[in-house]
Amino acid sequence: DNAVVLDEVTKRYGRGTLALDGIDLRVRRGEFVCFVGASGCGKSTLLNIVSGLDKATSGRVSVAGRPALMFQEHALMPWLSSLDNVALPMRLAGVPKAQRLERAHELLASVHLGDVVDKRPHELSGGMRQRVALARTLATESQVLLMDEPFGALDAMTRDLLHDELESVWRARGLTVLFVTHNVREAVRLADRVVLLSSRPGRVVQEYPIELARPRR
Ligand code: ADP
Ligand code: ADP
C-alpha cells in the first residue's frame, strides 16, 4: 500500500537544468524515507513535485491525500501567537474555534511548548520556533509529511529533541514522511530507508534500508 508513487519522473527547468532524470520511487504508507545528496542534486525539486508546488516535466506522480510541507524557514506569522499559528491551518480548513484551539493546545504540549502558547515568534528561540512550526505542520491532519531540511539550522541538542518528538508523532499517527537532509547522521537516525540522489543528472543512485535495533510500530 503506497502513499507516494513516482514513475519515470523528469524535471527540467526551462530549457536548462535537468534536475530530475527518470526517478522511480515508491514510499509505503507509514514509511519514513530520508533523501540525501549534494547541494543541487534535486532534493527540493523532488519534494516540490510531490507536494504539487511544482510540476514534473514528464512522468507520473501520485500521492495519497494532500501532503503537508515543512521547510527550514519556519514561515510563522509574526503577528500571531504560537497558539494562533498552530491553529491557522485548522482555521483555513473551517474547524470550529473551540475545537481548533483545544487541538492547538494539545499539539503545542506535545512539542513541550505548553507554557509559551501566548508568545509570538520573535519572543521565542530558533529551536522553539521550529517546534511551533512542527506543531503547525501536524495540525493539518495530513497523512503525508514533506520536510525540507526542517531542522538544518538548529543546534545538535535541539535537533535531537525534535527528532524524538517527530518520531513519536510519526509512530502514533502512522504518518508517511519524506525528509530531505544534508546530514547523513540525521538520515540514519530517522529513516526506515535512505535514498541517495546523484547530482549528475538527478537520479537515484543507491538505496539503503535501515535495520533498526528496536521493533517498529
Ligand atoms: P538547497 O540546496 O538548500 O535545497 P538551493 O540553494 O538549491 O537550496 O535552492 C533554494 C531555492 O532556490 C529552491 O526553492 C530552488 O528551487 C531555488 N533555486 C535553486 N537554484 C535555482 C536556479 N538556478 N534558478 C532559480 N531558482 C533556483
Ligand atoms: P537540492 O535541493 O538537492 O539542493 P534543487 O532541487 O534545489 O537541489 O536543485 C536541483 C537543480 O535544479 C540545481 O541545479 C538547481 O540549480 C536547479 N534549480 C532548482 N530550482 C530551479 C529553478 N526554479 N529554476 C532553475 N533551476 C533550478
TrEMBL record:
Q: Which residues form the signal peptide?
A: none
Is Nucleotide-binding there in the keyword field? yes
Cell membrane as a keyword? no
Alphabetical UniProt keywords: ATP-binding, Nucleotide-binding, Transport
Q: Which domain of life is it from?
A: Bacteria
Could you state a single Gene Ontology molecular function term? ATP binding
Q: Where is the ABC transporter domain?
A: 4-217
Q: Protein name, please?
A: ABC transporter ATP-binding protein
- Name the source organism: Nostocoides vanveenii
Relative to the complete UniProt sequence, the shown stretch is 27 to 243 of 269
